[in-house]
Write a structure and sequence with these properties.
This protein is of the alpha/beta class and 127 residues long. It is 44% helix and 13% strand. It has two domains: 66 residues, Rossmann fold (3-Layer(aba) Sandwich); 32 residues, no CATH class. The chain is built from five helices and three strands, in the order H-E-H-E-H-E-H-H. The chain has a three-stranded parallel β-sheet with strand order 2-1-3.
Length: 127
């Protein structure tokens, strides 16, 4: 009986080790490799890896190698990808309210944008 308890405890310790809870997140985008956005995303991935002691890694698939935004969304739904850096336009066919967040590009002053957007966000469902 002691051997059985020892096996169970050993198994629990092995499963709770840092390697057992490690994850690599796969994220695709049409953003070209070497662009400013991609460089920022890679810097963020490096920071995540450092702050999690290597338990969480982010693998990017840049330049549309996983397909268009629409294809990336389909692969996310099927579980092939964990995420995607996708344009608001690509998401608009799923949820039209996402276009609201493209408005900062239309307004020069951020303070004016927040005054403008706050009442509009109340119009959209919280999803």
């Amino acid at each position: 009986m002691n051997i059985f308890k020892t096996l169970i405890v050993s198994s629990l310790i092995a499963f709770s080790s840092s390697q057992a809870i490690a994850a690599t997140l796969k994220i695709a985008t049409v953003v070209p490799n070497g662009s400013g956005w991609m460089n920022e995303m890679k810097a963020a991935a490096k920071e995540v890896k450092e702050k999690t002691d290597g338990r969480v890694k982010i693998k990017y698939y840049p330049g549309g190698v996983m397909g268009s935004d629409k294809t990336v969304l389909r692969k996310m739904r099927s579980g092939q990808l964990h995420g995607g850096a996708i344009s608001a336009g690509a998401l608009a066919h799923i949820y039209n309210g996402v276009n609201l967040y493209s408005l900062p590009l239309c307004l020069i002053i951020w303070q004016k944008f927040t005054i403008f957007v706050k009442p509009l966000t109340l119009l959209f469902p919280k999803d």
